[in-house]
Each structure stands twice: as structure tokens, then as C-alpha cells.
From TrEMBL:
It comes from Anabaenopsis circularis NIES-21. It comes from the Bacteria. Pfam families: Uma2. This is Putative restriction endonuclease domain-containing protein. Residues 34-191 form the Putative restriction endonuclease domain. Coiled coil: none annotated.
Amino acid sequence: MVSSLKELIDEPELGHSNDPEERFISSGVSWDSYESLLTKLENNSHYRVNYLDGILEIVSPSIRHEKIKTNLGMLLERFFYSKRIRFVPMGSSTFKNKARKAGVEPDECYCIGEEKKVPDLAIEVVLTSGSVSKLEIYRRLGVAEVWFWERNQFKLYHLRDNSQQEQATVYPDTYGYEPISQSEILPELDISLLEQCLTISDSIQAIDEFEQGLKAADEPK
């Protein structure tokens, strides 16, 4: 990728590197520069841009990352349809709050029930570690639940401290989010079943096993 923020903003065409997954990080970035970059990239969906207190992170996801993201969204939407849960998929839309100096583009995100200004659920596929605390960004934006897919399993977090304070006072070690084992906004979802099916490389097989698992859970005991 490029070596400086100015070079990235001024570059007429953004090319893809041979490196399958890259990360560009810059500190001391103004909000105006962040918004200029978003404008520059508005027609290029390949990059994910995150911003927190002047630290800018740009990620160029790998093909493996995008496969996992796509399969995860596919399975989740099967669950929504199966349970007749109304939802609004918002993909990797940009969510930002200038007053709180935070912005993010999730891998996948959803509003449950009806469309809202920020999603109820944000999901991050983690293959390489980053320098920006995603949970702090999501806290400042008020996202109720955040899932991280890392090393073939989920880590789930539910927001307990959405105050406007600079730092979380409840669950401060996880930025105001409580680690949970079961989703609170999707309590019927079997997370272990989702994990199992997400590790299946064949998409049709993954869907078949996921739907079989959903049916089995609905059968009388």
C-alpha cells in the first residue's frame, strides 16, 4: 500500500498489492483528513477504514477474509428467514461520530426489526491484529452487540456502558462491553452451530448443515 496518508488521498487510482492482506496505520490524523479519505474511497469497497482519536487504520482484506465474511452473512440471513426475524443488512457501511472522534466500517452489520442510524449488531472477521480498539469505537457509536470471528470461534460482547464519558466505567477492560456466550439480541441462535458451519469450506454443505441444525433445534424434545 502507500506510505503516507497524503499519498493515499492524492493517488488517482488505488491499486491492489500482491500482499493478500495489508494494514496502513497513521496517527495524528485530523477529522477533516479522515473524511477526505472516505470521500476518496467512496467508490472503492475493497478497503475498510477505522478512526479513533486521530488514529487512522486502513485494511485491505484478503480473499480468505472476504470468503469468511460472505459465508457468515449468508448463514445469518438463513437464520433470520427461518425465524421470521425482520432485519436490515447494512454490510460494510460507514458509521461515524465527529463529536466522539470515532468511525468504523464493519465487515458485516445488521439492524434488527427496523433500520436505525447505527446497527444493533456489528461483526468483525479478525485474521490479523489491528492497532485500533474496535470495541471502543463501537461503544462511542452505541452499537449494542459486537462479534469477533477469530481462530474459528466467536467472541461475543454486549454493551453495558454506553455513557458519553470519555472512558467506560462498567467493564472498563473491554471498553464497556460484557463478554457473553450467547447473543442477547438473537437469543435463539445457536452460536456453536454457526461456528461449526462457518468452518465448512463448501458453501452448499455449510448451508445444508446449518439448516438441518436449525430444524433439529425446533423439533419437540
